[in-house]
Structures are given as C-alpha cells and as structure tokens.
TrEMBL record:
Domain Copper amine oxidase N2-terminal: 24-110
Name of the protein this chain belongs to: Amine oxidase
Keywords attached to this entry: Copper, Disulfide bond, Metal-binding, Oxidoreductase, Signal, TPQ
Post-translational modification: Topaquinone (TPQ) is generated by copper-dependent autoxidation of a specific tyrosyl residue.
Occurrences of domain Copper amine oxidase N3-terminal (ranges): 119-211
Length: 649
C-alpha cells in the first residue's frame, strides 16, 4: 500500500466537452471546470509562488439544506444557485486553501494552512521521487556492488508517517525492487537499501544501506493470466439493463442515487432515496457515503519497515489510485461505465476512463422464498431471485488492489464491500524453509526467501445517513438474558433499547456483544407505531491492536473503535484529518469527537463512521497474487417500511 504509478491517467489536452448542464449540485467537477480552476489560480497572485503545485481540487460541497431544498423543489432543470470549488495548493513551501466561485470565476477566500501534516502527494511528486536514484552515482555503486543491473530496478516511494519529530518535513522513503525475470515487481525487494527523499527540494537526502540481503529469485512469481480474458462470459442478450444513468444520477428499481468521484475518496454515493410504494413517496436513506480513510500499519518495528503505516486515502487518494476497469474481468458484460476526472499536480484535468462500473448482479441467491405445505391438497412455492445493483471501482495503491462495491438491494439494503487483492509487500530473507527460522521475523515465510509481514487494513467509511429525514438518533438495542418466571423455561432474551446521547457514548467496540445498532428517525413511526430506522449490520470485528502511545496509532486513533457517531459537520469527512501525510494526530475523528464529548447526538443530523478491519497474517496462497478477501457491512431497513418492500416492486 504505497504508491500509484498510473498509466491509465490521461491528461486532457483537448477538451471537447459538451456544455454540460449540472444535473445535481453534488456532481463532481468536470474537466472544463478543472481547467477553469487551473486558469484562475495560475493567473492570480498565486502564480508567483515558487513550485506551485495542485494537491487537491474538488467540489466545495454545497450546504446540505440548499441541496435538499433544490432536490425537493421542482426547479431541478434550473441550475443550482452556486457552484464552488475547494483547492489546496502548495507554493513557496506553504499550503494554501482556496475557495473558488465557479459561476463568476473568482477566488472567494484563501487561507494559509499552518498546522501539522501535508496534503496528499501528487502523482508528479511520486514519479519524480521514484526517478531520483537513477540520476545518482552513489545509487549505481550501491546496486552494482550487489551485482544488480540498474536498468532492471524500479523504486517505489513510501510515505513515512510521523514518529514524534518536532518538525516533520515532506519526505518519502524509496524501496527498490528487481524486475528481472518477472512482472511481479514487488516480489523481488532489494532489502537493506532505502533512500530518503526530501520532497520539497526533490533531492535524495540519505541512502540507508543496512547491508546485503539475498535477492529473492524470480521463479514462480508471475501472476499474469494465461489469456487476456480467462473465462470469457458469453454475451447474454437477456441481460437488458433496467437502470438509467442520467449524468451522475442513477435510477434502478426502487432506488435513486447520485454517483460522484473525487481524487481522495474515489466513489461517493449521495442522496440515495428509496421509493416506498405504500406511501407512494421517495424517502431518504443515505445523504452521502464514501471511504474516508484507510490505515495499513505493518507490524515490523525494524529500521527498514517501522515507518510503513500508511494512510492511503489521505496520503495518496483512492480516486487518485483508481484504475481503468477491464470489461469482463473487473465488471460483467451488462455493466455501464463512468469516467473519473481529477486535477493533476499541474492543475490540468486528468481522466481515468471507465473508473466506475455499474451493473445488475444476478447473485444466484434467493431474495425471498416460501414453500407452503399447510394447505390440504396443495403445495405452494413462491419466491424471487436476488438481483442487486452494484457500483464498483478499484483503487490500486501500489501493491494492493482495493475493490470497492456499493450494492443496492430491492429489499432496501445497501451493502458496502471492500475486497483486497493484489500482491503482498514482502521482505527478503535468507530462509527457504520455515524450520530455519529461529528469530522473530514479524511475519510468516510465504515463499522462498520472502517473509509476508503481518499488517492490518482498516477501511473507514463515512456514512451520513438521513433516515427518512435529517434528524436521527443512534440506538443500541441490547439483547439481554432474563430469568423467566412461572414457566418451565428458565430464561429468555429480550431487547432493551438505549438511545446513545453523546458522541462519547456512541463510540463503540463491537465484538461478542449481542446488540443491534440502529439509526432511528425519532420523529417518524410506521402505521403500527414502530420507529422508522435502518440497522447497521457489521462485519467481522477488528480494531487496531497497537498501543495507544504508538505514533501510528496516535495518527489513526479512531481505529480503536469500529463505530463512531458524530453530529453532522460538513467539514468533518476525513477520519485521520485532511492533512494526513506526516500528520501528528491533532486532527481527525477522535479529536472532533473528544472536543464534543458532551455534544448531544439525539434527534439531530448525525454522521456514522464504520471501520471494516482486516488483520492480515499472510499465508502461501497470498503469493504470488492474493485471491480476493472481502469484508463489509450492510445497512438494512428496520421498520422503515410497512412490510417487505420487494413485494411491491
Ligand atoms: C424545464 O425546462 C424546460 C426548458 O428549459 C421547460 O420546457 C420545462 O417545462 C421545464 N420543466 C420543469 C419541470 O420546470
Ligand atoms: C541490463 O539490463 C538491460 C535492460 O534489461 C539490458 O539491456 C542490459 O544488457 C543489461 N546489462 C547487463 C550488463 O546485463
Ligand atoms: C522548487 O524550486 C526550486 C528553485 O526555485 C528548485 O531548486 C527546487 O528543486 C524546486 N522543487 C521542486 C520540487 O521542483
Ligand atoms: C466543524 O468542523 C470543523 C473542523 O473540525 C470545526 O472547525 C468547526 O468548529 C466545526 N463546527 C461546529 C459547529 O462544530
Ligand atoms: C463534559 O461533561 C462533563 C460532566 O458534565 C464535564 O466534567 C466535562 O468537562 C465536559 N467536557 C467538555 C469537553 O465539555
Ligand atoms: Cu494485507
């Protein structure tokens, strides 16, 4: 989980963009707007800044009340009253936050950021850093003394975290790999050699040579499929699309939602509404949902590995790492595709063709069924196959591939799944058999001469649920055993509902505790009198095991709990803070929540944060490429509808 060397990114030099009317106020910036922003900034007083670089260019999210008003009014073919962009640039070694008004092409506000941490690294910076060793004679000497051919080496930049330094400059460490004889670049680490690069001056500041470690061989490392499309799916003419994409709006069965994209989060699902056939009304479920941060700490404290504690979303960006999806491999033949747009380090628009795919998934599962044998002389069987709608993207962050799915079900559920694939970050070692290992290796032997270092993946989702309206509460319904009275039974369980009142109370570790987590609209009831709600169905429990005073843990302290609920605040979206590169833990979800420990979250607009966690102690099957390992969560209606909504479709 480190770098992104994107070959699929296309810099758009010629823009033939149809004058596009905004279909939705949360539409991502289009290439024309990105060019406009680049032009405004490079012709402003910022142009004189030394080494002006664009680190973040995104829609400045309009206020929720304005968006909701616009959506509920019937003025949807009039354009939204304002359109703004948020830009973070660096120049003259300073970070500047700028808000632009895109309607009149003007800078609305600017603010120099002086706090800790840095904005995401740009692709240009990463590529420049990766090339530096090849201009260095010292590097040539170091690798030739190892008997290696410099033309067969690839170096990748790794972010370096923060370990208590009082001044943390922008820097990366390069690790280098030997490509000879393999396409699996990460499988041949040149262990013992790392290169510290100062990003501000773009110069090598140090070669760290810990001595030679045997280079793992190339044999058995390739992972390419024998043919381009290993299992071509026959074109099925019956799979007629039953969804409609209009701009970034998607309509399918009883769902309507908006699909956005930015360099940081990747896919963003917004304003998801579900049609209630009984009420004859579209009802709100999810105002905005996206991956907020990803924390990947490696469990190797040795001098060459200790700093590998990545915050992939904040340091690199999931959208920045989005790859072009391959039809029939990444998405089935009935998929529709959307391109992704973002700004490069020079501010110019870049396109990731086919960054997102949308398709109906014929799961082969049963949506519901029943066989009734209780009617004399008859057997009645009825049911429906499960067909869902999936929105997918893949972020390839260096060695790992994160497959991110949002799956909409006609039952009213939204399921988010993250699949891990790609190749392991392995550490070269002398061992060719596990029996030889007598010391602590920080991971098991996964292939000859390779240790698969233990590590975690914590993928934190930002979920601004608006269950049938903005004002919601967070309820923990505890299942508790009770002694039975005057019954042959001795015990039973019952549900004790507890509304969690403050951000402090709503910070949860979920394990064996039998409880249901519900986002409830306390102002709405079903006809039967139950409170309208959605339930968070959590996946396998995993929280960070690092000690609280460990520096990576200080930076990602929110990973000690899987669930947080905070009062809605538009500027709180990135769980490890916006400035995640070299951050010191002074911003982010845990800090906001601590600041507001006593803040009520009852009958208020609230946001939920859920972390999908994996503890990964690798095994041999993860080499040379890992079979997809998935986890996720489901948001499932609980007394939201009067009855099973599938029957009304
Ligand atoms: C939308 O705009 C078009 C022309 O711009 C107009 O003909 C149409 O009536 C409008 N629709 C609504 C619902 O306002
Ligand atoms: C080094 O590798 C390059 C590129 O693969 C190759 O052209 C060259 O012959 C190699 N040099 C030596 C000395 O093996
Ligand atoms: C920034 O500009 C200075 C000269 O103005 C140059 O020495 C330095 O290498 C530049 N840094 C980068 C990252 O381009
Ligand atoms: C919203 O969040 C920002 C960033 O954490 C903070 O500065 C601001 O005070 C918050 N606003 C409210 C009303 O809490
Ligand atoms: C929260 O409330 C407790 C008890 O009333 C109080 O002691 C504490 O100082 C409050 N914390 C903050 C941050 O307001
Ligand atoms: Cu892993």
């Amino acid at each position: 989980m480190a770098i992104l060397i994107l070959i699929t990114v296309i810099t758009l030099q010629f823009l033939f963009i149809r004058s596009q009317q905004h279909h939705h106020p949360l539409d991502p910036l289009n290439p024309k707007e990105i060019s406009q922003i680049q032009h405004i900034i490079t012709t402003s007083h910022f142009a004189s800044l030394r080494n002006l670089t664009f680190h973040f260019v995104d829609l400045d999210e309009p206020d929720k009340k304005d968006v909701l008003q616009w959506l509920s009014s019937h003025k949807q073919n009039q354009s939204f009253p304002y359109r703004r962009a948020k830009v973070v640039i660096r120049g003259g070694a300073q970070t500047q936050e700028i808000i632009l008004d895109l309607k009149n092409g003007a800078i609305m506000s600017e603010h120099g950021y002086k706090g800790d941490g840095y904005p995401p690294l740009t692709l240009t910076e990463l590529l420049q850093a990766a090339r530096l060793p090849f201009q260095s004679l010292q590097f040539k000497d170091l690798v030739t003394s190892r008997g290696l051919n410099v033309s067969e080496i690839t170096c990748f930049p790794f972010t370096i975290g923060w370990f208590g330094e009082s001044i943390a400059k922008r820097a990366v460490r390069l690790s280098c790999f030997y490509r000879q004889g393999t396409t699996n670049v990460f499988s041949r680490p040149i262990e013992g050699l790392t290169i510290l690069v100062d990003i501000e001056s773009m110069k090598i500041s140090k070669f760290i040579d810990k001595g030679k470690v045997p280079l793992p061989g190339a044999e058995g490392t390739d992972f390419q499929s024998s043919s381009e499309n290993p299992n071509p799916v026959p074109c099925d003419s019956n799979t007629k699309r039953s969804f409609v994409i209009n701009g970034n709006n998607v309509k399918w069965k009883n769902w309507r939602f908006h699909v956005g994209f930015n360099a940081r989060a990747g896919v963003i699902i917004s304003t998801a509404l579900i049609f209630d056939a009984v009420k004859n009304k579209w009802r709100s479920v999810l105002y905005r949902g996206h991956v907020s941060e990803t924390f990947v700490p490696y469990m190797d404290p040795s001098s060459e590995w200790y700093y590998r504690t990545f915050l992939d979303v904040g340091e690199f960006g999931f959208g920045r790492s989005a790859v072009t999806l391959v039809p029939l491999t990444d998405c089935p033949n009935n998929a529709a595709y959307m391109d992704g747009y973002m700004a490069g380090g020079d501010g110019l628009p870049q396109q990731v063709p086919k960054a997102i795919c949308i398709f109906e998934r014929y799961t082969g599962d049963i949506a519901w069924r029943h066989t009734e044998v209780g009617i004399p002389g008859k057997v009645i069987t009825s049911g429906e196959p499960e067909v869902n709608l999936v929105v997918r993207m893949v972020a390839t962050v260096g060695n790992y591939d994160y497959i991110l799915d949002w799956e909409f079900k006609q039952s009213g559920s939204i399921k988010a799944v993250v699949g891990l694939s790609g190749v392991l970050e392995t550490k070269a070692a002398t061992y060719t058999n596990a029996d030889q290992i007598k010391e602590e290796t920080f991971g098991p032997l996964v292939a000859s001469n390779r240790i698969g270092n233990n590590h975690d993946h914590f993928i934190t989702y930002y979920l601004d649920l608006d269950i049938d309206g903005e004002d919601n509460s967070f309820v923990k319904a505890n299942l508790r055993a009770k002694k039975a009275k005057s019954s042959p039974r001795k015990s039973y369980w019952r549900v004790i509902r507890k509304t969690l009142k403050t951000e402090d109370e709503a910070r949860l570790k979920i394990g064996m505790d039998a409880s249901e987590l519900l986002v409830v609209n306390p102002n709405k009831k079903t006809k039967l009198g139950n409170h309208v709600s959605y339930r968070l169905m959590t996946g396998q429990p995993a929280v960070s095991l690092l000690m609280d005073d460990d520096f990576p843990q200080i930076r990602a302290s929110y990973t000690k709990y899987q669930v947080w609920v905070t009062a809605y605040n538009k500027s709180q979206r990135w769980a490890a803070g916006f400035y995640a590169d070299r951050s010191t833990g002074k911003d982010g979800l845990a800090i906001w929540s601590r600041r507001h420990v006593n803040e009520s979250i009852v009958n208020k607009d609230i946001a939920m944060w859920y972390t999908v966690g994996f503890h990964h102690s690798p095994c041999q099957e993860d080499f040379p490429v890992m079979a997809t390992l998935s986890s996720g969560f489901e948001l499932r209606p609980a007394n939201f509808f009067e009855r099973n909504p599938i029957l009304n479709n």
